[in-house]
Amino acid sequence: MTTNPGESRGTGTKPGQQWSTRPRPASAAALAAPTAVAPRTACTACGHATGVEPCCQFCGQVLFLPRGIALSTAGLRFGGHLLEAALFVCTLGIGWLIWAFVVFQHGQTPAKQLLHMRVVHITRAGTARWGRMFFREFIAKGIIGVLAAYTLLIPYFWLLWDRNRQELWDKMATTLVVTDRADQLRPPSADRPAQADTRTR
Ligand SMILES: [Zn+2]
Could you tell me which residues belong to the region Disordered (predicted)? Predict the structure, then answer.
């Protein structure tokens, strides 16, 4: 196929006509959609209006988890620390470590398993996994422990005034500690190993 050298391909624009470079105005709906503020919702447990926090400020219900799973109380958290220490001593450390490495995958430590508590990952909206638990229990707590040694142990009491009862290591790991008495967060594969667990992959 040959082209006529005298023929020029026009662009379709007439002399003096220019394509507008201004962006087309978006519709009101398209502009509003990405910046729309999430509507205020009610707590599933107590009905109070919820704000930006991941848990209800009235009853402690964690908003991204099933009804009935609330933040653990400060007293239970403190009791958990004492039980953890007792278990560590009774099992000569090594037993606690093996036990912990098994239950880390369910967001628990030995004491948390006995007290029906779990660590949940806020970003994932589910139980913390093994790697996050390892980071929380050894690295984050180690760093906060050094900090606390130079600050009158004040960081250890952080959950007493925190809106989500987080310790500083919870903030580092983006986690909350919840009480799950009915074991609602137990993964389906925990007691039925034959059944493939595709939901949490
Ligand atoms: Zn509530």
Answer: 1-25
- The amino acid at residue 194 is A
CA distances 112 to 44, 72, 181, 200, Å, are 25, 10, 11, 21
The CA 73 to ligand 1 mean position distance, Å, reads 14
Spacing, Cα 60 to ligand 1 middle (Å) = 6
Q: How many folded domains does the chain comprise?
A: 1
Within a domain: 129: yes
φ/ψ (deg, to 5) at 40:
-70, 135
63 CA from centroid of ligand 1 (Å): 8
- The strand pairing partners of 179, in sequence order, are 70, 117
185 within domain boundaries: no
Domain residue limits at 146 = 70-179
Rounded to the nearest angstrom, the distance between the alpha carbon of 49 and the centre of ligand 1 is: 8
Along the 201 residues of the chain, how does pLDDT read in single tens digits?
A: 444 444 444 444 445 445 445 555 555 544 444 444 445 689 999 999 999 999 999 999 999 999 999 999 999 999 999 999 999 999 999 999 999 999 999 999 999 999 999 999 999 999 999 999 999 999 999 999 999 999 999 999 999 999 999 999 999 999 999 999 999 999 887 555 544 444 444
